[in-house]
Structures are given as structure tokens and as C-alpha cells.
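Holo prediction. Input below; ligand is MRU.
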Amino acid sequence: MNVLIRGHHRHFRTVTFDAQRNAVVLIEQRRLPHRFATVATRDFRETAEAIQQMVVRGAPAIAAAAAYGLAQGVRAFRGRSSTTFARHLETVYQTLKSARPTAVDPVNAMDEVRTAMRTGADVAEQQSMALAAAEHFANASASQCEAIGQQGVKLIREGLRVLTHCNAGWLACVDFGTATAPLYAAQAAGRKFHVFCDETRPRSQGATLTAWELSQQGIPHHVIADNAAGHLMQRGEVDLVIVGSDRALGRTGEIANKIGTYTKAVLAHRHGIPFYVAIPLSTIDWQIKSGLAIPIEERDASEVLGAWGTITNPRTPGDRTKSGRHVYVRVADPASGARNPGFDVTPAELITGLITPVGIFKPTELWKQRRSLGWLA
Ligand code: MRU
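Structure of the complex:
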């Protein structure tokens, strides 16, 4: 998507690879919307760290980062022994896999890269095949998100008021976004609509990332407190909900997404509002048989007990805190601890449809449609 930098629009992908430096290049998402910058990781451990620390986040984006991280790791290997190389590959794979556990996309992406590498005759060939496969994954992921836009655009009629949760935009993907792709396609078709962005505590991806993306794109929107959605729905001010997902179960139609998604689905059901989930094929898990078996990431308590922000103005006359400084402020009682589950699971019966690159399906249709959805027996 395009970013306005010093008056000029420039196209960026969230995740790319610099083959010369053997570096994964990422948009640094923790400083948005106040500062736009890219960072380059020097090795696969730094890439895993960037995923864990949420420099890059969002299921398809961390999938591309993991695929490139795998290529980065294997390209750094020096030597010709296939056995030592296989051991090194396993270390790289496990390090990247364990960075964040809920999204299945990084695992699916790295499995694709590993499978592609298998036909390489020797270490050198496997190293170059790894990068080609990672590039292929990233390009296919961007194309799938664009296709989600084409499938979902029919849902965004003139004057619609849409609610979204967290950031399932282009920053969460290689490009285009999942939940936002139909919005961008509708805007391109000349339709006018309004978006409510859930703030999405504790990391505030809705307030910081989705709202920024929509501003860049010129789409009218409001940030709302996470607790405000029920009120707006009750007053008839929300017509449709679209969210993304970190893991959609092909066998049951349940979806895991950012904590608070389940609450919004219950509210939407209560008020008869359609609730859609937009996913690329890498988000489908064909193995797990129950939502209760999805690993839910527990993050640090500090995320709940405080908040990050950027000082925009001195707070009081004479305050010497520098404008532009990124700071963490403690909000909760200093003696309190916190629980911080990062994701929750929405049951299939609360989901109106899944917007995929190949069509919109009811959650229970995923298994029947498994061949067109990329299931490999
Ligand atoms: O913790 P995050 O910011 O990685 O969580 C992101 C989400 O929950 C997104 O909705 C999900 O990854 C889908 S992104 C297209």
C-alpha cells in the first residue's frame, strides 16, 4: 500500500528481503502512527525476536517474516555437510516457530519453504531454493489478500458502517490486508462508507495501526473504546463486522483472533449484525479438531498494566519532557498483577461467513471446500 512520506506517496510492503545483506526488512510497527521507519534484521534470531516483540505482527505478515527468516537462516550456513545443514535448518525452524504460538500462518509458510527445498541436490541449491520459495510465499500471500478484496467487496454497500477489531490491514499482511481488503476494493469502486476501529487493548493495534492505515487511505473512520461496540450496535450504528484471524479450523469453522473478537461476535449475534472473518489460505489449520486445542499466547503483564504512547505536547507549562518521545506509562496499581491472553476463539455458529481468496463460505463449509482451499491430504 502507499504511505505518504513528506508529501509523496510511496509503495511499501510490510515485509521484504534484502538478498545482498541477507536481511529481512520490516516496517517497525511499534512506533506507528507517530514515526514511520523500516528495520533490517541481521540473522534469523533477530527475525524471531522481531516477531516476538511485535516489530512485525499480524498472522500473514509474521508468516512472510518467518518464511524469509528461514531462508535467511539457511543462507547463513557455511559448509557442505547435508547432515549438519539439516540440523541447522531444524534449529532455525524451531526458533522462528516458537516466537509466537497462536497464528498457524508462520508454520504453514515455513513448511512450504522446507518442502520446496527438498528437491535441491546439495546445500547450495537448497539455500537458493529456500529464498525463491519464501519470495513465492510472500507474493502469493499478497495476491490472495487482493483476491479477498474482490470476493468481499460486494458486502460493502454505499453508506455502510463497518466495525473491525485489532489490525487486519496491510500492516498485518504482506500487502492489502485481509479484513481491510474489501474496504480498499470498495473505496476503489467509488463507494463511501464509515469504519469503527476498536481500540484493541492492550497493544492498541486498532487505534495505532488500523486508524493510521485508514487515514493514509482517506477512509472516514472513528476509533472507539473496546467497550463501546455494544452501545453502538444497540443504537443501530453498526451494519457489519469484519475481522481477520490467526487460525481458522478447517474441520470446525472456529477461528482464533485478537482477544476481544469473541465478545464482538456475541454482540453482533445478539443484534443480528453479520459477522465476517477474512482469511488467506495460510490461516487455515486442517489438523486441529477443536478450538480448545488452539495454543493461546499469554503475553507479558506489563501490556495490561500500562500503555505505550508518544508525547505530543508538554503536559504542563514548564514540563521538559521532549515531544516525540515514545514512553510507557504505568496505569494500574503498582501492586497489581495481570493476566494477558492475546487471543480468543469464536465458535462457528457466531460467524456469518469466511471471506477467502476463492469465495465466501459458511464456517461449516470449509471442510467440504477443502480442495479449493488448498488442503493437502
Ligand atoms: O497480536 P497481533 O497484533 O499479531 O494480532 C493480530 C490479529 O489478531 C489479526 O487480526 C490477525 O493476525 C489477522 S491479520 C490479517
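Residues 57-60, 103, 166, 168, 172-173, 178, 205, 243-246, 257-258, 342 surround MRU (CB under 6 Å). That is the main takeaway for now.
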